[in-house]
Amino acid sequence: MPAKIIDGKAFAATVRAQVAEHVTKLKDAHGITPGLAVVLVGEDPASQVYVRSKGKQTVEVGMKSVEHKLDAETSEADLLKVIDDLNNDPEIHGILVQLPLPKHLDEDLVINSIAPEKDVDGFHISNVGLLGTGQKSMVPCTPLGCLMMLRDHHGSLSGLDAVVIGRSNIVGKPMAQLLLGDSCTVTIAHSRTKDLADVVRRADIVVAAVGRPEMVPGDWIKPGATVIDVGINRLDAPEKGDGKTKLVGDVHYESCAAVAGAITPVPGGVGPMTIACLLANTVTACCRANGLPEPEGLTA
Ligand SMILES: Nc1nc2c(c(=O)[nH]1)N[C@@H](CN(C=O)c1ccc(C(=O)N[C@@H](CCC(=O)O)C(=O)O)cc1)CN2
To answer: Residues in domain Tetrahydrofolate dehydrogenase/cyclohydrolase NAD(P)-binding (predicted)?
Structure first.
């Protein structure tokens, strides 16, 4: 039987609708409008697209959107000043600094200068520690989106064998923590893992987040397993015409879909969930800041 395609685009639309509903309640019952500030340093083309999309979707769900676009040579001191002002702005409940940053800026220092309660990316060391110890935190958006899709597909994840391929701070490590929190047996695999194919073959859930185009072939996948593809790799596609490109994930879609029970496509899988979860995190941060109940089902 062919794999079920987990439609991240449609799922993200339902998350945004839930966010919009909660935003309306916050405005009507409490006169509060959640506010999200996005900071972009430099002109990376992909980052510009993502930041534009974040601003547009923030407004669409009824929240306040603020964008700070700084030039590529911005000094660390100037960037930290922007963040400090946002930390102290009562109308801003969420702050995100788009990554990657230009090389001269210290990413850890910048992220850790965001007030942890406004860190809607969940990258601040305090949030990392809280998540790692099973306490209430802000949860990184991409892994949160993956978790939502997995819970929706499986119901309970308890006792399932999960392999996360990739050990980044943004996806691999928090994804593993979230799966552990849902009582999976978790393995984090990476470029030095021995017998990677055999490790992956044991998994009921495979999350591929290595950033290597189509690295996981179908014969690594256990029949019926769920495959979550976090990779977004742009490749040349001469077959589509001169100068054309295509997006592929970290798994070889056709061969994996032939064996898996369920799979996320690229594009239209995990990617759209990243921004939907950013909006969800902003509402959550706003509720926490105002001592109000958080929306159900939008956090880990
Ligand atoms: N501060 C952050 N920086 C970055 C993050 C992040 O979560 N926080 N993640 C990525 C980029 N990203 C959001 O910022 C992001 C990536 C991809 C998508 C998406 O919807 N992708 C589409 C395809 C888009 C295309 O055509 O290129 C899809 O997969 O369907 C949304 C957000 C790095 N930086």
So the answer is: 140-288
Sign of CA dihedral 84, 86, 90, 92: negative
Ligand 1 centroid to Cα of residue 294, in Å, is 25
The pLDDT assigned to 223 comes to 98
Q: Is the CB of 169 under 6 A from ligand 1?
A: no
Ligand 1 touching residue 267 (CB < 6 A): yes
Q: Is 222 a catalytic residue?
A: no
- What pTM was estimated for this model as a whole? 0.98
Could you report the per-residue pLDDT of 137-164, keeping only the tens digit for each?
A: 999 999 999 999 999 999 999 999 999 9
Catalytic-role residue among 121, 182, 229, 250? 121
What pLDDT, on the 0 to 100 scale, is given for residue 213? 98
- Asked if residue 132 has its Cβ within 6 Å of ligand 1, the reply is no
Q: State the pLDDT at residue 2.
A: 85
pLDDT for 187-234, tens place per residue?
Answer: 999 989 999 999 999 999 999 999 999 999 999 999 999 999 999 999
Q: Decide whether any atom of ligand 1 lies within 6 Å of the 96 Cβ.
A: yes
Domains of the chain: 30-116 (3.40.50.10860), 141-272 (3.40.50.720)
